[in-house]
Amino acid sequence: xxxxxxxxxxxxxxxxxxxxxxxxxxxxxxxxxxxxxxxxxxxxxxxxxxxxxxxxxxxxxxxxxxxxxxxxxxxxxxxxxxxxxxxxxxxxxxxxxxxxxxxxxxxxxxxxxxxxxxxxxxxxxxxxxxxxxxxxxxxxxxxxxxxxxxxxxxxxxxxxxxxxxxxxxxxxxxxxxxxxxxxxxxxxxxxxxxxxxxxxxxxxxxxxxxxxxxxxxxxxxxxxxxxxxxxxxxxxxxxxxxxxxxxxxxxxxxxxxxxxxxxxxxxxxxxxxxxxxxxxxxxxxxxxxxxxxxxxxxxxxxxxxxxxxxxxxxxxxxxxxxxxxxxxxxxxxxxxxxxxxxxxxxxxxxxxxxxxxxxxxxxxxxxxxxxxxxxxxxxxxxxxxxxxxxxxxxxxxxxxxxxxxxxxxxxxxxxxxxxxxxxxxxxxxxxxxxxxxxxxxxxxxxxxxxxxxxxxxxxxxxxxxxxxxxxxxxxxxxxxxxxxxxxxxxxxxxxxxxxxxxxxxxxxxxxxxxxxxxxxxxxxxxxxxxxxxxxxxxxxxxxxx
Length: 545
Hints:
- Keywords: ATP-binding, Chemotaxis, Kinase, Nucleotide-binding, Phosphoprotein, Transferase, Two-component regulatory system.
- Its EC number is 2.7.13.3.
- GO terms for molecular function: ATP binding; phosphorelay sensor kinase activity.
- By secondary structure, the protein is an alpha+beta fold.
- Helix content is about 45%, strand content about 20%.
- Strands 10-14-15-13-12-11 form a 6-stranded mixed sheet. Strands 2-4-5-7-6 form a 5-stranded mixed sheet, with helices on one face. Strands 16-8-9-18-17 form a 5-stranded mixed sheet.
């Protein structure tokens, strides 16, 4: 596997070689037409970008040459000097030296000495005549002796990668069907071909998924300006710390969470971090701190937004939820802190006392929750009053192929994404307890509500029937799901297996039922519905006794 440093060097090389080719083209145009504004603007832009990229990578010699060239082109652009006479060969020589330096980086060899060129560029900048040596003057007969090189990297539109990943998904479905048939037939030759096909499909799947990965820094690095602007609008002082920019994630996932992340950052500054005066009154530094970080956890990517602000006032959230008619007073009083946090993700919920550019506009955390749910991810909240809040986005690295738990219910196969599967247990009826009309199971020192999935999936809007433990016979297979800090046990008929699945959108009329997040095709050719855990959890809350 390539190191991050190697990947960045390859990206630098790809862009730098393209820039060098473009510079050579534009300066040739400028030599023929010194008044060509478009060529001049492009040369200035290319030099500026090459300077910034080279310095970021630590290639200071390239950065110094590009910096001086940028300055001279800037002066030509502003009409402070003319592109003519002895200036022309020096600038051509500068581009040639930059090309040699870039190729040296690609070959991992020492960069050529650019001292003579830098001295000449300095003379030009001081308004002196450059000292031209024979090798600094560009002759027409020096050109097919030049070595022409193409970049080892190509840029591919994301739509092409999307299409390729869809084809891989189809291949995986057919792979599973071939494997199933080979097992049923018992043909040794067919089984060998099926095993080889399986390995090829796996390698192709991971290769395509790897090609779609980008560093989260491509999004994170846009936030310093956002934080500055929002803090200014809110009249607050905020320092942003960013870490984990190298963590890789599917580019489409990054695109989907862009608005959610923006909202959480704005929310942290608008609702979380106090004004300098408020912070001073409670003994805090006037400067608020906001951290945007990423890390990997098993197969997931965790993105955290942490502030050291006022924290979430749980009692205030309870009161607002009751005032909005979101939950009865007696029910609100029984909610845990985690359950109270989940109330903030309902549409239109806000604790803002007045409308500002940042808060109180009816656009709440529900937009964040919807984005995370669409990815099959999770959103965790941790907060301590007076000390700050952390929102954690738990995201898959890819959205096309997902791990799932397959199970049977009433003779049909269903799938449950592993992202929302906490654990599976098999319990005897006497290990379940009926409390308040609900069954509870004690799993790892937690009391988790349990419901028959068949009852939850019926088309009734009526409350669930009070739990009857005596009606249960034999061991009960229970899937413990987790969503938004809330766990729920689903009683199913039988566990089948865990496997990667390709999720396709549901077609009419099932697309009207939000309990299903899609369908997949099993190796047997059977269509399998994929359950939507967030929707199931909301349904249970609405129908519980």
